[in-house]
């Protein structure tokens, strides 16, 4: 984990305190998320913790809350993994953790994905809705084949491709996340879509939660999002019978197609932004290169 900022929170009169998240906190954080029904594995928390910075709430030496954040480039960030144990909710712990994160991030343009329950708090902290996201998941059962566009082919990605893949994702997301993406490409599998020897799309598959997650998926725009379908379909045909999840920004033509592949929309959440007008971030950063699925709701 990166070095956390110093907490400027007055001491509590109780045994409740706040401090920087450290790697030894991973097991406790995993226990918190498991108790709330999150499907995260210990390894999923490990990846998050090694690429993020954060804080914990602690009472009587026991971790009862977490919040992590990721800095991107000079002026962007995201946050997530905001958890408070059910026994300690309603005491303002989540808000205090959020305030600590926001103080550490300062004026950075900061994004998060909010559940309906969490959105009112985030609005009070200065966030505004700038988009939405659909979470699709399910066991892959007899996936439909996807035809490639003429002159295009799919192949497994290699380390030699990583700089181009990072460039494409940066272009499609508008975020500088080279270190995070490098770590992701090292732990996951990648596939690239080529046209006349040029990479025009890519996607990553990694173990996560109950099975696998596909993301990010990035491609140069095509009719009916054919390239995105090819990049997603590549993994579905190889993971038949497995549980697969994909987080898709609303606004693509993938909704019905994902349903036909057996992936159901189980949740829709709001994308929110702070320190910038929501209208500025309602569109896509690049008119030609599009982000079709996220690394995760926390990491964008």
Topology:
Blueprint (H helix, E strand, L loop, with lengths): L15 E5 L5 H10 L6 H10 L1 E7 L2 E11 L3 E9 L8 H13 L3 E6 L4 H6 L3 E12 L12 E5 L5 H12 L4 H10 L1 E7 L2 E11 L2 E10 L5 H13 L4 E7 L5 H6 L3 E11 L14 E5 L7
Parallel strand pairs: 4-5, 10-11
Antiparallel strand pairs: 1-2, 2-3, 3-4, 5-12, 6-11, 6-12, 7-8, 8-9, 9-10, 10-13
What does this molecule look like?
The chain is an alpha+beta fold. Helices cover 27% and strands 35% of the residues. It has eight helices and 13 strands. The chain has helices spanning 26-35, 42-51, 93-105, 119-124, 162-173, 178-187, 226-238, 255-260; strands spanning 16-20, 53-59, 62-72, 76-84, 109-114, 128-139, 152-156, 189-195, 198-208, 211-220, 243-249, 264-274, 289-293. Strands 1, 2, 3, 4, 5, 6, 7, 8, 9, 10, 11, 12 and 13 form a 13-stranded mixed sheet that branches.
- SS-based class: alpha+beta
Spell the H/E element sequence. EHHEEEHEHEEHHEEEHEHEE
Could you give a short account of the major beta sheet? Answer: 13 strands, mixed
Strand content: 35-45%
Which geometry do the CA atoms define?
globular
Distance between the termini: 18 Å
Helices, by number, come to 8
Q: Uncertain regions: pLDDT < 50 for 5+ in a row?
A: none
Into which percent range does the helicity of residues fall? 25-40%
According to DSSP, the number of beta strands is: 13
Mean pLDDT: 95
Rounded to the nearest angstrom, the radius of gyration is 19 Å
